[in-house]
Amino acid sequence: MKSVCSILLALSSLYCISAGDKVTPIVLWHGMGDSCCFPFSLGSISDKLNETLGAYVYSIEIGPNVVEDVENGFFKHPDKQIEIACNKLSVEPALAGGFNAIGFSQGAQFLRGLIQRCTKVKVKNLISLGGQHQGVYGLPRCDGISSSLCDFMRKLLNHAAYTEVAQKILAQATYWHDPLDEEAYRNGSTFLADINNERTINKDYVTRLQSLENFVMVKFENDSMVQPVESEWFGFYKPGQAKEVQSLEESDLYINDRLGLKQMKEESKLHFLQVEGDHLRFSWSWFEDNIVDKFLKN
Ligand SMILES: *[C@@H]1O[C@H](CO)[C@@H](O)[C@H](O)[C@H]1NC(C)=O
Ligand SMILES: *[C@@H]1O[C@H](CO)[C@@H](O)[C@H](O)[C@H]1NC(C)=O
Ligand SMILES: *[C@@H]1O[C@H](CO)[C@@H](O)[C@H](O)[C@H]1NC(C)=O
Question: Does domain 3-290 match CATH 3.20.20.70?
């Protein structure tokens, strides 16, 4: 398309603009404690993507305003959030031809859930920035403004993550992964164990995930929020203990290809990138070189 475009450009620049490459639109899904549109976080990423790529950017908002959007990141079940996002995205005319998706932290596993479940959208590339594809075991230190909420969450998750009530009220409980009791996780996690095909193999999940052109997982080398950080590359603790970690390739999920990831790796669709720094800390120039130029330009 590019070379056709440059020939056309020589003939008529006007024609080229109307018939030339259209940048694939981009959908963003924010992380916990964040919202679709804060100017200091996703708002600025969205502007930069617009400026540098000329891409149409849609940032998912769960709820009627940013306050509820932030709250829903804690208190609305991911199943429900995905359903809402699925309905919103599918009626957006600019996204009808497909889009690239960028998930921030928990927004990354929610986007993967969306890809696996929502038949009404077509996603080309999934970029996961610090997403927790094997869940988390442990919460970051509690300080700052939301420390009472954090303390409440920590207690609930440490002692009762897999109870019906915790699964219902706290989104983070649905991707809590206790390596000391994998069976309790498989039985009790109402979101992650489902989208990871831990209980049964949902063939549609495999097919839809494999319809991606690329699944890019970015790990933050000095992440102090996500335990264990290997979850950002789909790895986790070896079952039965919480010290030693294993990579995706060493896990049963991969070896038995329950989710189709082994085949995706063989087709070179999986990309494991790492960047120095704490959770979601990256420079725009890193992002441009490693993500924008490689995955968002077609
Ligand atoms: C980029 O941002 C400008 C200014 O807000 C807006 O007018 C334009 O429609 C945006 N471009 C796309 C492709 O959405
Ligand atoms: C998991 O579910 C199975 C089948 O319902 C049950 O037999 C088993 O006791 C459960 N295990 C745990 C740890 O909850
Ligand atoms: C981040 O982690 C890497 C790998 O563990 C280490 O080499 C590097 O020194 C760390 N950087 C900072 C700023 O802590």
Answer: no
